[in-house]
Write a structure and sequence with these properties.
It is a single chain. The mean pLDDT is about 90. The longest helix has 23 residues, at about 5-25. This protein is mainly β and about 160 residues long. The strands form two sheets. Strands 1, 2, 4, 5, 7 and 8 form a six-stranded antiparallel sheet that branches. Strands 6-3-9-10 form a four-stranded antiparallel sheet, with no helix packed on it. It has a single domain (about 35-150), classed as PCu(A)C copper chaperone (Immunoglobulin-like, Sandwich), CATH 2.60.40. The termini are far apart. About 15% of the residues lie in helices and about 45% in strands. The protein has one helix at about 5-25; strands spanning about 35-40, 50-60, 65-70, 75-85, 90-95, 100, 105-110, 115-120, 130-140, 140-150. It binds copper (II) ion (CU). Copper (II) ion binds near residues 80, 92, 116 and 118.
Length: about 160
């Protein structure tokens, strides 16, 4: 193959264009977390704990992990999941290692009967109409603040 200086220059230009394109794609790499429909359940009068729910969507091309939640409505906040034991009894337990993986191009739904954010040691009763502040901590995306209105289940469609 005869590589004239002109051809060589064209190839060089094409290669550098390719490099620029790849770099641009690289910029959008990583997780891209979006929180949808956060809400918390009203707590019964004497209840010492409450629960909050939401949909955590990851539109990026890399997994992320929810590694903790902070809030000031309770003494502690834990990531929990509901499971059904051998006697068909529903139980909840803290998610192992407090690590909830949010896979790339996917979403994890926190909902009654499944994953939830447990508000342990409520400082006051959660009443409908109130809005609670939570800070979600992700391994790669960092902290994301969420405002969860307190409302009855299924209070809002969609
Ligand atoms: Cu729980």
């Amino acid at each position: 193959m005869n590589l004239s200086p002109k051809r060589f220059l064209i190839i060089l230009v094409l290669l550098s264009l390719l490099a620029v394109t790849l770099a641009a794609c690289g910029g959008s790499k990583g997780p891209q977390i979006e929180i949808k429909d956060p809400w918390a359940r009203p707590s019964p009068k004497m209840a010492t704990s409450g629960a909050a729910y939401m949909i955590i969507e990851n539109k990026g091309n890399e997994d992320d992990v929810l590694i903790g939640v902070e809030g000031d409505v309770s003494d502690a906040v834990e990531i929990h999941e509901m499971t059904i034991d051998e006697n068909n009894v529903m139980r909840m337990r803290p998610v192992e290692g407090q690590r909830l993986v949010i896979p790339a191009k996917s979403k994890v739904e926190l909902k009654p009967g499944g994953y939830h954010i447990m508000l342990i040691g409520l400082k006051h009763q959660l009443k409908e109409g109130e809005v609670i502040d939570l800070t979600l901590k992700f391994e790669k995306s960092g902290e994301i603040k969420v405002q969860a209105p307190v409302k009855m289940e299924g209070g809002m469609g969609g």
